[in-house]
Amino acid sequence: MSDSFAHWMAAIRLRTESALDRRLPASATAPARLHEAMRYSTLGGGKRMRPLLCHAAGAALAADARALDAAACALELIHAYSLVHDDLPCMDDDMLRRGRPTCHVEFDQATALLVGDALQALAFQALAEAAAPSCQRRLAMIALLAQAAGARGMVGGQAIDLAAVGATLTLEELEFMHIRKTGALIRAAVLLGAHCGEADDAALVALGHYASRAGLLFQIVDDILDAEGSTITLGKTAGKDAARNKPTYVSMLGLSRARELAATLRAQAQEALCACAFDTTRLARLTDYIADRTF
User: Fold this and answer.
1) How far apart are CA 173 and CA 258, in angstroms?
2) Could you give the C-alpha distances from 218 to 28, 178, 185, 269, 295, in angstroms and in order?
3) SS3 96
4) Residue 157 to residues 96, 149, 175, 177, 294, Cα–Cα distance (Å)
5) CA distances from 72 to 107, 157, 196, 212, 269 (A)
6) Residues paired with residue 100 on neighbouring β-strands, in sequence order
7) What is the pLDDT of residues 104-140, one digit of tens each?
8) What is the mean pLDDT of residues 2-27?
9) Cβ neighbours of 35 (radius 10 Å)
């Protein structure tokens, strides 16, 4: 990773952290416990992959920085809410997230449930109140995020994932699940960034294809890391998918073939960027980062 690209990633992460800090209610504001838990679950950790993708796509299309901040916040608030709910005992029942106790462990289950609800609402408020782009573009962005986060996207994928525990899926069924559970929000990150800029229909199609490949790549790497990584390195419980008998790319294909599929998706994502008539260097570098990451 070049120094300039690493510097850009660090700058976007810091920018997103600052924007989230401003957007989230202060801990001292009533109801203080809820607001403290919202900040605990959102700030101070995470790869910020969705904001990075959003900023990379938007900057390539001359997007307004204020619009990108709003979109990045919305994406990360949805992502944080999904993690809080995903960790609950009725879901994956996990005790560790980003190297520290999960929200329901640090606070309580009822508070964690409300935290997820509040973060989701705040995400759409962030988009609705954005200073840019146009009202028409913002409406399209709200609809895009709602679909990506809902029953046709992330929540639907989670429902399929819960039903698949202990079951045998085909590769096509596994892909169908992860296009929704993980891929939908990653695709939304790229397209929200594009909507903030000067994206025409051709750009949206090309970036949508790119993001669909990048989203599946992200999930396969997650499955590989869950099988090979340590709890300390990952910041979450390693090996939990195998322990719960959940179908993954590794359990279905084995490590070697899962890596081969990841390499194929990486190449497909990079190829999709070649169809774009604007500078996609940062998106290409982020694709490599997704593929090569170790946490």
Assistant:
1) 16
2) 37, 10, 11, 11, 11
3) strand
4) 22, 10, 10, 5, 24
5) 26, 22, 11, 18, 21
6) 97
7) 999 999 999 999 999 999 999 999 999 889 999 999 9
8) 96
9) 18
